[in-house]
Write a structure and sequence with these properties.
Elements: H1 8-18, H2 32-45, H3 59-72, H4 74-99
């Protein structure tokens, strides 16, 4: 596990954005969580796609998923949801501080 990998609790919050909507076709070989973690690794380290560690799925698979999710707006939807969760959590904490 790398520092950039999502903990299971965080993955559970956004996993529905990355799951297949259409059940047709062959079953995926790699988990979506592993692919997202590989993308986060690339983002965090700035490494080239071809330099992705062997612990992750093949770089071409990771890149193809990244490209398709980017085209469909999946990243924006997932990040918007994370921001909303963070805002609600922060607002609750601020209310607790104000009431004290």
């Amino acid at each position: 596990m790398y520092q950039s990998d999502l903990p299971d609790k965080e993955w559970a919050l956004v996993s529905h954005h990355f799951e297949r909507k259409d059940p047709r076709g062959k079953k995926p070989i790699h988990s979506k969580c592993a692919i997202v973690n590989a993308i986060l690794y690339i983002n965090k380290t700035g490494a080239q796609w071809r330099m992705l560690p062997k612990d992750y799925p093949p770089w071409k698979t990771v890149y193809d998923h990244y490209w398709r999710w980017n085209q469909r707006g999946v990243w924006e939807a997932a990040l918007d949801e994370i921001n909303e969760i963070h805002r609600k959590k922060t607002a609750k904490n601020q209310l607790l501080v104000l009431e004290s």
